[in-house]
Amino acid sequence: MAASLSTVFAGLLRGAGGGRLAQGWRRGIFYSHALRCEAAEGEEGEGAAKAEIDPAKMRDKIIPVETSIKYMQSEAYQTTYGSDPVWKKYRRNFRGAFPPTKTRKTCIRKEVISTGNPCPICRDEFLVLDPINTGLLKQFISPHNNGILPTKITNLCQRRHKQLEVAVHKARDIGLLTFDVPFRRYHYPDYYPPFMTADTTTTSTPASSTASDASASTPASPPPSTLASP
After folding, report:
1. Which one of 30, 41, 66, 169 is separated from 186 by 20 to 30 angstroms, measured CA to CA?
2. How many angstroms separate the CA atoms of 60 and 69, rounded?
3. For residue 17, what are the contacts with CB-CB under 8 A and spacing of at least 6?
4. How many of the other CB atoms lie within 10 Å of CB of 184?
5. What residues pair up with 113 in beta bridges, in sequence order?
6. What are phi and psi of 20, to 5 degrees?
7. pTM, two decimal places
8. What tens digit of pLDDT does each residue of 102-127 get?
């Protein structure tokens, strides 16, 4: 079978279109060889790129929350941020004259910072959003309405903002953060008019009857002439 196929192929090469067939066959071999060479070069380039990643942009280490709390009380934190919140001096980079309505989805991809201007939490690996780290969470809570500040003010990426919301709600459930319970004032006669009118009538009639009974039961004081001695 193999011999018959080889003879048929040789006959085709000797025929009228054999030259074109052979030329295309050689071209396919050369093209596949070029693709293999490009693939090998691409793998070598990716390996070199991975080797050239700046260690400061790596975020593969898990920082404990205790270390973050100690860092916020250290001199290095005071030198970097001072008494201002961590988002106070941050400025976003955006294209055009007006900033976009939403921040980027995330600053870290495949455990590496993928942008040149990460958000205030992603740029400092020692800032950990955790319910225990109340000193950091309070910086993102408004002093006026006790609500979480929006990303338009803090400039956090969407991923970190969701982590912030979860940490704040957990801290409030535990009792580490205080919050105001919303109180609503209602005009109850608008909602329960028959009950309120009945209560007002029942409370008004006994008061008048008791006043009349008290006046009737008390004896009249005698005139002063009868009290005088004869």
Report:
1. 169
2. 20
3. none
4. 4
5. 108
6. -65, -40
7. 0.59
8. 999 999 999 999 998 999 999 999 99
120, burial (CB in 10 Å: exposed 0-12, middle 13-18, buried 19+): buried
Contact between residue 121 and residue 129 where contact means Cβ atoms under 8 Å apart: yes
Which residues fall within 8 angstroms of residue 125, CB to CB, at 6 or more apart? Answer: 59, 61, 63
Sign of the torsion formed by the C-alpha atoms of 55, 56, 57 and 62: positive
141 beta partners: 148
- Is 126:63 a contact under the CB 8 Å cutoff? yes
Q: Look-up: residue for tokens 């009639």?
A: 205
End-to-end distance of the chain based on CA atoms, in angstroms? 163
The residue to which tokens 């005071």 are assigned = 78
- Distance of alpha carbon 111 from alpha carbon 230, whole angstroms: 115
Round to whole Å and give the CA distance between 156 and 160: 6
Give the whole-angstrom CA distance, residue 91 versus residue 3.
75
CA distance 46 to 41: 9
DSSP assignment of 5-62 equals HHHHHHHHHHSTTHHHHHHHHHHHHHHHHHHHHHHHHHHHHHHHHHHT--GGGB--SP
